[in-house]
Specification:
four-stranded antiparallel β-sheet; Immunoglobulin-like; globular; about 5% helix; 3 helices; mainly beta
Length: about 300
């Protein structure tokens, strides 16, 4: 007598994972009257529920706007510069900016507003609006005086990011994406044409970008598949329009870590004004930018 245990076959059919379990009796057909009973269990494939919630046509009560400001509670932290001692390529790089302080923390002394803070929804909400048809979906990401510009930005999935180099020295862009294809390319001297890059998927957190030739160079880009994200300005202000009415939980993120979550209730045809306070201790805990270990020597694509 041949005794066989269960055999499970999993397949993906139209976005659903189908698990088939073949329950076999103690004896097979050549051993005395076996029976085969297929048991079918339908499981939703990972990620489809979230995607369906955002992509489905959902009726909402209306849309409203969010205007806010991220402000510092307490004294402005004093952080040491990212580089000490001599600076590579001092004739090109901004010696004053790089050697005097940690340029990643920018606080407006008058208002206490914190610059370059990401405020965004981690997931596309039901009833989300899309970018307007015909809108120019492109941005320029430059390197000037050995500093990435812009330092922090929100980009839409499918949007072309043109990576250029305005400096008379070579740089490289090492883009450390998690849900998208990683990218690492040398940009030639004074390359104003550059190289295009497109995010195909949304990321849960901003993507870290470094230059392997200059250890202090750092920037962040957050690709989203919806328009509900912003980066704070010089005075800490931001604006996110056309939010579906209801309660939303925003991620507040700065220089490598999430500071907090902030819940906002949006009413139809109204603008909510919010102040988001962050502690001096949280801003002082900016993680260091690790020195690069890989240097790309080839300029060939």
């Amino acid at each position: 007598m041949l005794l066989r245990l269960s055999r499970t076959t999993t397949g993906l059919i139209a976005g659903a994972a189908v698990t088939l379990t073949l329950a076999v009796g103690c004896t097979l057909e050549f051993g005395g009257g076996a029976s085969v009973v297929p048991a079918v269990e339908i499981l939703r494939a990972e990620g489809t529920e979230e995607e369906a919630a955002g992509d489905a046509t959902v009726e909402v009560a209306g849309y409203g706007n969010l205007n806010g400001r991220v402000v510092l509670e307490g004294a402005i932290p004093s952080l040491p510069p990212l580089v000490s001692g001599s600076l590579k390529d001092p004739n090109v790089c901004q010696v004053g900016v790089i050697l005097e302080k940690d340029y990643r923390l920018v606080v407006d002394e008058a208002s206490g507003g914190v610059k370059n803070v990401f405020v965004y929804l981690a997931r596309k909400p039901p009833g989300a609006k899309s970018a307007e048809a015909g809108e120019d979906q492109s941005m320029v990401f430059d390197q000037k005086n050995c500093v990435f510009l812009p330092h922090a930005s929100v980009v839409q999935t499918g949007e072309t990011v043109q990576l250029v180099n305005s400096d008379p020295i070579a740089h490289n862009v090492n883009l450390k994406a998690k849900s998208n294809e990683p990218f690492n390319s040398v940009l030639k001297v004074s390359d104003t044409v550059g190289v295009p890059y497109t995010y195909q998927r949304s990321e849960r957190e901003p993507v870290r970008i470094v230059c392997d030739f200059h250890s202090w160079m750092l920037a962040w880009q957050l690709p989203l598949d919806h328009p509900y994200g912003a980066v704070t300005n010089e005075d800490g202000s931001f604006s996110i329009p056309d939010l579906p009415a209801g309660e939303h939980e925003f991620q507040v993120w700065h220089e490598g870590r999430k500071l907090l979550e902030h819940t906002v209730t949006i009413a139809p045809d109204e603008t909510v004004e919010e102040t988001i306070s962050v502690s001096a201790a949280s801003l002082a805990a900016i993680p260091p930018n690790p020195r690069p270990r890989t240097v790309v020597l080839s300029t060939r694509p």
